[in-house]
Amino acid sequence: MSTTAVPPAKTTKPEAAAAFARGLEGVIAGESAICSVEQGKLIYRGYEIHDLAANATFEQVAFLLLEGHRPSDAELQRFKAEVVAERPLHPAVTAFIESAGGWLASGRAVPMDVLRTAVSILGHLDPDAQDNSVPANLRKSKRLLAKIPTIIGHMQNVIDGKAIIGREHGGDPALDHAANLLFLMTGAKPTREYARVIDVSLILYAEHDFNASTFTSRCIAGTLSDMHGAVCGGIAALKGSLHGGANEMAMEMLKEIMRDVGEKAIGTKAVDDWMQRAFDTKRKLMGFGHRVYKNGDHRAPILHKLGRGIAATDSKNPGGHPALKWFELGEQVQKIMLDKKNIHPNVDFPCGLTYYTMGIPVPQYTPIFVASRITGWCAHICEQHANNRLIRPLSLYTGPTETKWNG
Ligand code: SDX
Question: Choosing from 290, 298, 344, 385, which is the catalytic residue?
């Protein structure tokens, strides 16, 4: 008589279907001490997002997420020095980025694809690659945090047909993380205001509990695979237009509306009619809606206000129209979405408008999301490795039951 427990047979019974949540909606899939995402508030390790956005820097938030506490001044200086020292890329990674120029120009690869491959090469070069211990994972987290902006900057230089900026030092060691990211892309040091806005955007994007890309990274880490592999999975997941890719698609949608209706039609019925046509065709409007936030994304108004602030004084006329006109169009679209569909913008909508005002190329919006979310991903990978249980849910089988192979 077998004494081993016989696992419950898979069932197709209706009660199983009732328990099944498509897309794991509303399912608590694990415990975490890193972040809480609720309609009431968004907190990173106990600190509320409005407090962090107003009073912290991205480096401080990165330390908070990775180390678990607010850094002392001495800890912060040490952390910043370690990250600055790790900014430069190994020549093999830079050579790959330079070789990807043709794929980027032809559209065979987009920046998110090249970033994913470059991170995979970083894994081959990292002395701690196969070590999932706490100290090794922390060292790898800082290296990834440091090097991803350099990959983004070098990639933009290649796209622009320019010489690599900061090849030796990974940018300007005197610049903070967010400012250096802009410097690496353009060769120009950003104004204090631009540096602050990009810094806050990185704080807002840093972490968001079990979102699709973070959960992907945790599933990979849960098999005891390595951090670089888990981050590559996170990058692949974030690229999708239903997730991080929405910040690029939201700006492309606004450019489409502006092309279709023209600047003078902003505020008129022409925009309402454009939106109605989108509703009639069941089009998903990028930058709107959220699986958890059904009454608004805490992060969106923070970034919208900052972005609109620089748009008000901007004179670059991104896309041939005054930056403020883009925000007015965005605000009209937001109003229509709220009035007609009761759907709020998520953080990706103001991000698109803000980065466009700053002259950041649209295909770099989601890579910049990676430059921030690497902190959340690495914190979750470390948490998963430190107290692991393989993540393996069940499926509700809907295929044919036993069919005889030989009839
Ligand atoms: C991010 O999870 C996170 O935390 C992610 C993130 C993070 O920080 O990690 O916050 C970052 O990814 C933000 C989301 C970015 N994605 C987009 O902006 C893409 C557009 N949004 C939608 O695809 C949608 O809102 C989702 C995917 C974000 C959420 O979808 P859900 O929870 O599965 O909701 P749903 O698609 O079932 O929508 C419910 C209804 C549907 O209507 P019906 O089909 O039932 O009639 O609302 C409609 C949807 O059609 N709807 C939309 C819409 N979002 C929802 N209709 C038009 N446009 C939209 N954007």
Answer: 290
